[in-house]
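Q: Got a minute? One more chain.
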Amino acid sequence: MHLTETAIRATIRYGYAPAMLVGVNGAAIVLTVAHTAHYWLLAVLAVAIAMSFLAERVIPYDPGWNHDRADTARDRIHAAVNEALVLASVATIPLLAEVVPTPELWPSSWPFIAQVVTSILVADLGITLVHRASHRVGILWRFHAVHHSITRMYGLNGLMKHPLHQTVEMTAGVAPLILIGLPVDVASVLALAVAVQLLLQHSNADYCIGPAKHLLALNEGHRFHHLKWAGVGDVNFGLFTLIWDHLMRTHSYDPTRRFDSTQLGIAVKPDYPSSYLLQITYPFTTAGGCAFTSHTATADPAVTRTR
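A: Always. Here it is, folded:
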């Protein structure tokens, strides 16, 4: 039995990320190419969420992060609202195409998988730039801080974002694509890929991707982004890849570092509101802002500069 359990854990540790990145996204591509109704992609997303929760329980990075802290229901609301916004934005693409004429620049003659990969790379750049700006521009940080208030990392809180910030990020990533004629089919698969990436990026599963951790924006590197000290956590902004972080010199990785809840959150706001309604309204209040001082990254965990 012990050998069987060990084999299962090893299989999930090394197979989980490929199963999500290739298996789940691949299934979405196959279903879309087969002209299957788009609502079947919701079933694929449900499978991805189930896989995420299973992996987190079999190979947890921190077993404590699997336990509810009166935040699970809130995170489910955030996820439902933000995923609904993504789906609604996909549904409006045909309407936008009629209202706003777009040049026929989209490479529709390319294989479908190449179109999907192209959309991912373009969206990754726009989202990464807005994400970085959200750590430097006060009005953006007000709304992005909602996401950084988490004190445990698990798949579902990847979508724990203020809907306004989610909208800004997705607009930056998708608007350039829409302006050159992004097809609805490609947009649908891209929307699923974003959800899958967020599940992987915030996963509590201790999975292994080897050297790819320096290229793909997955949980091993993204934990550094959630360090609670300003400057220290201003790294690894990429959603899908770390390409732009390497180019912007915002990539950070230390294989010896272990993370726990005491290192997550917002250092200067340890009592950040935790309920859904308060998180939606807090950025509009006077207390919802932070003063920015320094953005120089440091490895010193004693640093508590204000944002």
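A: Residues 2-288 form one domain.
Q: Perfect, thanks.
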